[in-house]
Specification:
Number of domains: 1
Order of helices and strands: HHHHHHHHHHHH
Number of helices: 12
Helix content: over 70%
Distance between the termini: 22 Å
Structural class: mainly alpha
Number of strands: 0
Largest sheet: none
Shape: globular
Radius of gyration: 18 Å
């Protein structure tokens, strides 16, 4: 892992982890086109820690409120159940799909189609005044968690799947975004713990690329998360579908033509 790869992958992870365009698909496509080897597990963990910290920084007030409101915390736990079950039972099967540009590109087309559904959702902008997740019920939380579980496939955007599901269930834009990203915290921590458990012998090589990758992931993750919230609150979430379709089609063409 050289510094150029660390910077590029850190930027890609930071931007695409939160935007509904699938960070896993971007990493797969970039690695295939540029000929990068698959990032070491430890480097992948470091990049995810960077974007995890970005989530904590942006939603620090909501995280504090979460632990002060038992109902809100219960909804996060309920949503985490289907995600955890899917992740633990299908870990090896899903892991084998990573690295496949065809699968990642095809799933991007699915993500784009899913995002397009939000174009038809009536205008609604709900602030965080009052109890956290006022417009999310236990059944809604479970379905959002199920959508997050499906998003372990490369090319299926986690934020796209969870926010779109929340919007379709009429949860309100602000609650949809906040719930999605607070839900990502335990899911990312769980995924990191599972990766470490499955790979007990992690080797720590030169630290410089790891530090650089972490910093770029954190900075660009923070910026992209702030940008996404603005786009979502303006009711323009569906516009990301165009990008997903374009990248998905381009990825499939490259996979079947050049790679």
């Amino acid at each position: 892992m050289n510094l150029f790869e660390a910077i590029l992958l850190g930027i890609i992870q930071g931007i695409t982890e939160f935007l509904p365009v699938s960070s896993s698909a971007h990493l797969v496509i970039v690695q295939n086109i540029l000929g990068f080897k698959e990032p070491e597990l430890l480097f992948d963990l470091v990049l995810h820690i960077g974007t995890l910290l970005a989530t904590v920084l942006i939603f620090r007030k909501e995280i504090i409120r979460l632990f002060m409101q038992p109902r809100a915390l219960l909804l996060i736990i309920v949503a985490g159940i289907p995600t955890g079950i899917i992740g633990m039972t299908l870990f090896h099967q899903i892991e084998q799909t990573f690295g496949s540009m065809k699968i990642a590109s095809g799933c991007l087309l699915v993500t784009g189609s899913f995002l397009w559904l939000t174009k038809k959702i009536p205008e609604k902008s709900i602030t965080l005044e009052g109890p956290l997740f006022s417009f999310i019920t236990i059944p809604k939380a479970f379905l959002i968690g199920l959508a997050q579980g499906i998003a372990i496939l490369p090319g299926i955007s986690r934020s796209g799947a969870t926010i779109t599901t929340a919007l379709i269930l009429k949860s309100g834009r602000r609650d949809a975004a906040t719930f999605s990203f607070l839900l990502s915290i335990p899911s990312i921590l769980g995924a990191l713990a599972l990766k470490i458990y499955k790979t007990p012998h992690l080797q720590i090589p030169d630290a410089n690329p790891f530090i650089i990758g972490f910093l770029f992931s954190l900075v660009f993750g923070t910026l992209s998360l702030m940008f996404l919230i603005k786009i979502l609150m303006r009711g323009e979430f569906f516009k990301f579908s165009y990008y997903c379709w374009a990248l998905g089609i381009g990825g499939l063409l490259a996979a079947y033509t050049f790679l």
